[in-house]
Amino acid sequence: MDTTEIRLDGVRKTYPDGTVAVDRLDLEIRGGEVLALVGPSGCGKSTTLRMINRLVEPSGGVISVGGVDVMGQDPVELRRGIGYVIQHVGLFPHRTVAQNVATVPRLLKWDKARTRARVAELLELVGLHGDTYADRYPHELSGGERQRVGVARALATRPPVLLMDEPFGAVDPQGRRRLQREFQALQRDLGTTVVMVTHDMREAMLLADRIAVLSTGGVLEQLGTPDEVKGAPANAFVADFLADFGEETAA
C-alpha cells in the first residue's frame, strides 16, 4: 500500500432479502487519522467497517486502501495487512497471551526470534509486562486486559490500517476511559489510520479526529471534527441524534 488513505466511492451493500444496509456511500478516511462511525442501530456502521477488509463483500462501488481496490486483492492477504479489533476480542482461549499476539507473525512465517521480540515490544506498549502476562491464558485476564491483548495482536505486524468495532464496549466504565486515553496516545505515536465504530458519543468525541454520522441505509448525514458535529449539526437528524446523548457529549 502506497499510503494509508481509505476511500469509499458509491459503496453499496444489499442483502439477498432486499435489505439495503449501505446505499451509495462516499467517504474518505485520511492517512493517520481516527475516523469514528456513529449513528443509530442498524444504520450500516459495522457493515461499512467490515466491507473495508472484505469480511462483508460489497454489492457495488469501489473501496480502496492505499490507492488499491480491495476487490482486486486476495481477501486473506488483505486482512493480514489490516488490524481488526472487536468488542469481545476473539482471543484463542487455549493459547497464551504471547501466542495470541504472535498469531499473524506466525502466519507470515516470521522467525522465532523476531516474533518473540515483537511480542515483548507490544506487550510493553499496551501496558502488559511480558514477565507477568506472556504465559497467561485469556480466562486469567480481566476484560480490560483481554482488550489490550486484542489491540496488541491487531498491531503485531505494524498494519497501516486498524479497524475497531466497539473495541472497548465489554470493559467497565472506569477501565474503558483509561483504555481510551491509552489508545489515543498509542495511535498518535504510531500514526495508524483508524476506522472505529462506536455507540458511545463521548468515546467518539474523545478519540476521533473526525466523526461520520450515518442514518439508516448507511446515508452520510455529516462528516466533520467533533467540534463541528457538536457545534453545528448539519441537519435535524444529526441534532436529534446528538440530543439523545445529552450530557454525554457536553462532558
TrEMBL record:
Does this entry carry the keyword Transport?
A: yes
ABC transporter domain: residues covered: 6-242
The protein's GO terms of the molecular function aspect are:
ATP binding
- Gene3D superfamilies the UniProt entry points to: P-loop containing nucleotide triphosphate hydrolases (3.40.50.300)
Instruction: Please give the SMART domains that the UniProt record associates with this protein.
Output: AAA (SM00382)
Q: Which InterPro entries match?
A: AAA+_ATPase, ABC_transporter-like_ATP-bd, ABC_transporter-like_CS, P-loop_NTPase
Q: Which SUPFAM superfamilies match?
A: P-loop containing nucleoside triphosphate hydrolases
Keywords of this entry: ATP-binding, Nucleotide-binding, Transport
The record's family statement is: Belongs to the ABC transporter superfamily.
Protein's name according to its UniProt entry: Glycine betaine/carnitine/choline transport ATP-binding protein OpuCA
Source organism per entry reads Demequina sediminis
Q: Which gene encodes it?
A: opuCA
